[in-house]
């Protein structure tokens, strides 16, 4: 059945691949990102492929902007039934160099953003008696050097997911998390630049570390998100699926 989906941080990377995949699954997709013109790039690709998409500019950490964005999606595409909390940022640093702003910025986008978006869409899902929420966690939730803020946020996404599953299950709403390993995107490219390693070398090293012998593509994550959003996944809730080319990568 065709539904309305919102994917945050969908101008590029995993979010863009997920938006394209959910559109290919038959859903109308709101492509949400900070800059509407960048979100439009993904939305245009979806429309050119025959799908339905709306570009929406909003900061997921801004309570007013989130409320307005969800209202706009409901008015222009239909009541949102699927939410993918994908928007994310990095502010990596070893603990002794990490600033409070680095901490707050990461918590703001990942956790406050996922909380605000989930709270804003749940009333539509409850009214419909059907909903799917998928949160992007990470293998970094298990701990990662230089990522005290990001690891805490991504572990927090797992706690948020399980609580949403418990609270919202009775309304036909499931909540699950996908925890990617190393995926080739602008985010991992920025990490390579920050530590001064050519991206090709960074990719080769990550591929060697992964049991499947390659790094992930955004489409690998989109496929897992697609399952959690499907009709068939109605009895699957509160789960964390590591998509990392191995048990952890
Ligand atoms: P990406 O290429 O950096 O894309 C993230 C997108 O989120 C960007 O378009 C960015 O917009 C947007 N965004 C940032 N802050 C936002 C905000 N406040 N409101 C709305 N949109 C915002 O990242 P990615 O690699 O695709 O990662 C997507 C998700 O997967 C993130 O949650 C990330 O933590 C998670 N993840 C990634 C990996 C990986 O290896 N790549 C691994 C594990 C988990 P701007 O460009 O305007 O900043």
CATH classification class of the largest domain: Alpha Beta
Strand order in space, largest sheet:
3-2-1-4-5-6-7
Structural class determined from secondary elements:
alpha/beta
Bound molecule kinds, no repeats: NADP nicotinamide-adenine-dinucleotide phosphate
Helix content: 40-55%
Q: Tell how many strands the DSSP assignment holds.
A: 7
Overall 3D form: globular
The fraction of residues assigned to DSSP E strands is: 15-25%
What would you report as the Rg, rounded to the nearest angstrom? 17 Å
Order of helices and strands: EHEHEHEHEHEHHHE
Q: What is the domain tally?
A: 2
First CA to last CA: what distance? 35 Å
Which CATH architecture of the largest domain?
A: 3-Layer(aba) Sandwich
CATH superfamily name of the largest domain?
NAD(P)-binding Rossmann-like Domain
Low-confidence stretches: none
- Per DSSP, the total helix count is 8
Describe the biggest sheet? 7 strands, parallel
Instruction: Estimate the mean pLDDT confidence.
Output: 98
What does this structure look like?
This protein has about 250 residues and is α/β, with parallel strands linked by helices. It has two domains: about 5-180 and about 215-245, Rossmann fold; about 185-215, no CATH class. About 50% of the residues lie in helices and about 15% in strands. It contains eight helices and seven strands. The protein has helices spanning about 15-25, 35-50, 65-75, 100-130, 150-170, 185-195, 200-210, 220-230, and strands at about 5-10, 30-35, 55, 80-85, 130-135, 175-180, 240-245. Strands 3-2-1-4-5-6-7 form a seven-stranded parallel beta sheet, sandwiched between helices. Strand 2, helix 2 (about 35-50) and strand 3 form a beta-alpha-beta unit. Helix 1 packs parallel to helix 2 (about 35-50). The termini are far apart. The relative contact order is 0.14. The model has no long low-confidence stretch (mean pLDDT about 100). It binds NADP nicotinamide-adenine-dinucleotide phosphate. NADP nicotinamide-adenine-dinucleotide phosphate (NAP) binds near residues 138, 186 and 188.
């Amino acid at each position: 059945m065709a539904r309305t989906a919102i994917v945050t941080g969908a101008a590029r990377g995993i979010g863009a691949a997920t938006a394209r995949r959910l559109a290919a699954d038959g859903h109308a997709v709101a492509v949400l990102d900070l800059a509407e013109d960048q979100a439009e790039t993904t939305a245009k690709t979806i429309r050119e492929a025959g799908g339905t998409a709306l570009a929406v500019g909003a900061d997921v950490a801004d309570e007013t902007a989130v409320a307005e964005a969800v209202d706009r999606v409901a008015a222009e595409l239909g009541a949102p039934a699927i939410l993918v909390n994908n928007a994310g940022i990095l502010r990596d640093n070893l603990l002794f160099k990490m600033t409070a702003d680095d901490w707050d910025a990461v918590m703001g986008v990942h956790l406050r953003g996922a909380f605000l978006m989930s709270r804003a869409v749940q009333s539509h899902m409850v009214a419909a008696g059907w909903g799917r929420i998928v949160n992007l966690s990470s293998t970094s939730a298990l701990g990662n050097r230089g990522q005290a803020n990001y690891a805490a946020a991504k572990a927090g996404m797992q706690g948020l997911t399980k609580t949403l599953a418990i609270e919202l299950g009775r309304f036909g709403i499931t909540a699950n998390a996908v925890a990617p390993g190393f995926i080739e995107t602008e985010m991992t490219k920025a990490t390579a630049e920050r530590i001064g390693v050519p991206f090709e070398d960074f990719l080769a090293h990550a591929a060697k570390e992964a049991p499947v012998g390659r790094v992930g593509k955004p489409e690998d994550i989109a496929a897992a998100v697609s399952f959690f959003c499907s009709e068939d996944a109605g009895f699957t809730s509160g789960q964390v699926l590591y998509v990392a080319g191995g048990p952890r990568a």
